[in-house]
Input
Amino acid sequence: MSLFSRQCCLRQQISISRCLHSRTYASQAPGAPSLQVFNRRTKYLQRERAAHDIETSRKVDYLKDEVARRLCERLLDIKRQFPLVLDLGAHACNIARALTIPDPDPDPNPTQSTSPPLSSRISHLIAADSSSSLLHRDADLPFNNEINITREVLQDEEFLPYEPNTFDAVLSSMSLHWINDLPSLLSQVNHILKPDAPFLAAMLGGDTLFELRTSLQLAELDRRGGVSPRVSPLADVRDIGGLLQRARFKMLTVDVDDIIVDYPSIYALMMDLQAMGESNAVLGREMGPIPKEVLLAADPIYRELHGNQDGTVPATFRLIYMIGWKESPDQAKPLPRGSGQLDLKDVLERKKS
Output
């Protein structure tokens, strides 16, 4: 079964200054992040290796392209121009490609024949990523001529070398789930945004790849008598709102979207994850490939517990979408508690009658 012919089933769930210098930057205190979960060096090497196989890397971009498109659709609800926008953790500039899609509105206005691409509302996009090979992989493709884009290689996405109040919006797609100190990064993002500017992001979280996780754990327990962390830990949707508030974002919106992709086997799924640069990078993981006996046991377990009737196996990617705004004095604010003039109970009763 080829990569292009795979069936992708989409299910949506709505659930939800530091010091006084003449030149300051949005970076945390010197030294390693206070919380270490992932080996950032390993993750960098994984993504660099994946980018060097250009043809395969492009073929497995189906998930990143779809998530970037869905994230960019949320810009349709923000009626303004964006002179300078940062794409944080840009990968192969999937967001830039999504911004150039013609007629991007999934619910178009019947009075208009088409809508212009979202790139028409962005004067300059800075695509920033730590993997130079991945960032420049598609620099020669036609979409680059349809948007004013500058690629910047970061030493690490956890440290943002930008001045305060720089960007009119910050976007991030499929990158934040590899950040060690997410509270610190969100605070830095807030710092580099202009007042009343939005931050829009999508990250893997929650029960992502729960089918793979449970199958590998059961197989390893059976064959080796114990388990090793084979799938990375992820943030839960219930935590994201608190993290955004802690970073001083206002007017928060958080929702969840499940993308379920069917694969011919567990091996095809793991090969795609490797080609995406999304292999395990947890500190303390067992080094080397997964033992052969564990994989041979995991495939039938996967099919028995989660398999489809047509012989394929589903893999769930749970996306957490978030929108937060940097505080501004002239920003719209919620009314004080108890200031409402109508009782919701009365409104509902009148509607029933």
Notes: Residues 210-224 form the longest helix (15 residues). The radius of gyration is 22 Å.
